[in-house]
Amino acid sequence: PPPPQQQQMIHDRKFDSDSSSDEGSSYSSAAAPAMRGVQVPMAVGAKGFMNTASPNRTSWAQYCAAGGAPIVDGYSGFVAGPWGECLAWSKLFEAQSPDWPSDPQFAPEGPAGQVIAAMLASCPGHLRGPVHQGAERLEEACNRAIAERRPLPIINQVVA
Fold first, then answer.
1. Which residues contact 82 (CB under 8 A, 6 or more apart)?
2. Can you tell me the distance from the alpha carbon of 65 to that of 59, in angstroms, rounded to the nearest whole number?
3. What pTM did the predictor assign?
């Protein structure tokens, strides 16, 4: 489990973590390290949230690409692996950054929409339907967790 009070910087916003439980998650990400001052290589063709820092200090586009095609966890029905992490972190970013809609880099679909679009673009055609459903399930579960102030699935982070 991640140590308490680790921090994640995404798009110059700090996410504080006090969660250390993997409850309700079939895939647990490593705790995200502090990102202050980290130079993130830009991924060719990626935009918005996909060009922000992932837990391994590369862009989310690079982190997700290194993990391969999106997968859906058979137990939870959520997109899992790097793509699931990315989507969950994007939902946390949206919740902790209420001004994101006014930032042109997230227009028009928003951070989570950008992640889902990139996910589907990287997916073989015959898997797009199940992956899209898994992404929608994870996004809905993240929205419920945010509303109920519970840890988000996969990343086990609570909105500060």
1. 54, 63, 64, 66, 67
2. 10
3. 0.74
Amino acid at 61: A
Query: In this structure, are residues 127 and 69 in contact, taking their beta carbons and an 8 Å threshold?
Result: yes
Confidence class for position 116, pLDDT limits 50, 70, 90 = very high
Helix, strand, coil % (nearest 5) of the chain?
40, 10, 50
Q: In whole angstroms, give the CA distance from residue 64 to residue 60.
A: 6
Report d(CA 95, CA 73) in Å as an integer: 24
Residue-wise pLDDT tens digits, 24-51: 333 233 333 333 333 344 455 578 999 9
CA–CA dist 49, 3 (Å, integer): 25
Q: Determine the Cα–Cα distance for residues 40 and 53; give it in Å rounded to an integer.
A: 6
